[in-house]
Amino acid sequence: MGKTKAPKPIDLARKPRGFPDKREGLIHAERAIIERVTEVYRRWGFEGL
């Protein structure tokens, strides 16, 4: 009988690519931070791009 081959790097499991899933609470927190920072910039006279 033949010997068993070692798995090639291609055969090994990989980490998923793309954007990670985010929880609802994290999305709301990020949005609140962006809104607050945007407020400060507008107060100082900056305009959005």
For the sheet with most strands, the description reads: none
The first-to-last residue Cα distance is 68 Å
Q: Structural class, from secondary structure content?
A: mainly alpha
Strand content: under 5%
- As residue ranges, the low-confidence spans are none
- Bulk shape: rod-shaped
What is the H/E string? H
What's the count of strands? 0
Number of helical stretches of at least 4 residues: 1
Helix content: 40-55%
Gyration radius, rounded:
24 Å
Chain-averaged pLDDT: 84
Sum up the structure in keywords:
single chain, 49 residues, 1 helix
Structure, explained:
It is a single chain. This protein has 49 residues and is mainly α. The protein is 41% helix and 0% strand. The protein contains 1 helix and no strands. It starts with 23 loop residues before the first helix and ends in a 6-residue tail after the last helix.
Describe the structure concisely.
With 49 residues, the chain is mainly α.
List the helices and strands and how they pair.
Elements: H1 24-43
